[in-house]
Amino acid sequence: MPDAPERAAIGPDVMRVAMDHARRGVDLQVVLRGVLVAFVALTVAFVPPAHDVFACTLVAAGYAMWALAVFLWTRGGSDAPVRLAWVALLVDLLVLGSLTLLTGLSTPQSWTADVLSAGFLLIPVLAATQLRVHICAAVAGATLVVYLAAAIATQESNAEPWGSLLLRTAIVAGVGLGCIGLSRIQRSRVDTIGTLVNDRTDLLDQLTGIEEHERRALSEALHDGALQYVLAARQDLEDARDTGDAESFDRIEEALLESSRLLRTTVSELHPAVLDRAGLTAALGDLVRTAAGRAGFDGEVSTDGWPDGRTPLDGLLYRTARELVGNAATHAKASTVRLSLAREGDHARLVVADDGVGLPPDAMTTSLRRGHIGLASHRVRIEAAGGTFTAAASAPTGTVVTVDLPL
After folding, report:
1. How far apart are CA 241 and CA 103, in angstroms?
2. pLDDT, tens only, 32-56
3. Per the confidence metrics, is the pTM higher than 0.85?
4. Is residue 335 very low, low, confident or very high in pLDDT (cuts 50, 70, 90)?
5. What's the total number of domains in the chain?
6. Where is the Histidine kinase domain positioned along the sequence (predicted)?
7. Measuring CA to CA, how many Å separate 324 from each of 31, 92, 288, 337?
């Protein structure tokens, strides 16, 4: 169960996942406590001590009532049992410690105390159902201390050698460490699930507006580019009609040529025809040249060893490369961008490196929260295809993004 600062930092969907797993842990804890109650009752009934039987029976009955009360409390539907269920573990420990001391001190060579001491092994298992590792560690440590104290207190009456006592204590310590490790694994899994749910929620939230975003970007590209040249050409055409100036016709021709180039570039960005006609290597070269001409950086492309034919990954690799090169041109302020594509065994490796300002460690998370889903969406697509998407700092400056995909 996440603590208060963590609950403030994560979204409701992730919180719902964490609460669901925490409730399952509480349910398991209640079931195991029922086993422990039955164990205590059967021990007192069938392996009773020679003295203080009534006191032991009262403790066992009170423990059963307590376990029933905890069971009803956890059925209430509130979040309090999820946060406070660990407190019941201290009562479990207190009951077992009291009964072990009561039966071990009053009756030398008591089988009751020996049987009850085995119940201590279940306490760390109960604590392992918690999603908070520090609580599991605290309960396991307290169990070890109480077990050792009870064993030392009853050592003289049971005439037990130190070797036997320490070996029994070592087993309890080993079970406690194993339960702490199990709790860590559970928490790690829930954190991983929470991260995936968080990414999914952010992507779904942003994808609802992606069509409007793309339309706006296309409108701005056409308005600020080709449309301006067309309007200028129209103005020059009106001037040419009135004056017949040859320079006006030259300006018209230049404006129309530039308009054609910009329109062709925009259409190519929407769906690169060169990818269909000439293949991925030619499309990547055209992509880097176009971006370099716009942003003013030096572009380098290496596709040695890539097969000439089409592959099922061409579209995904091209879209990813377009996003990475576009980011380098727009945000990195790079002077050089290097793109390489190679086939390594049964994998395709795409590397885009720049010497720009670099990529912060939390860049993808920050971009998602600001409404930019480009990198995150491509990472999700790459991972969905069975590949890996990694971004790292480059020496001395810049960023290197590596994409590995199975062919």
Report:
1. 115
2. 999 999 999 999 888 888 788 888 8
3. no
4. confident
5. 3
6. 317-407
7. 53, 57, 10, 10
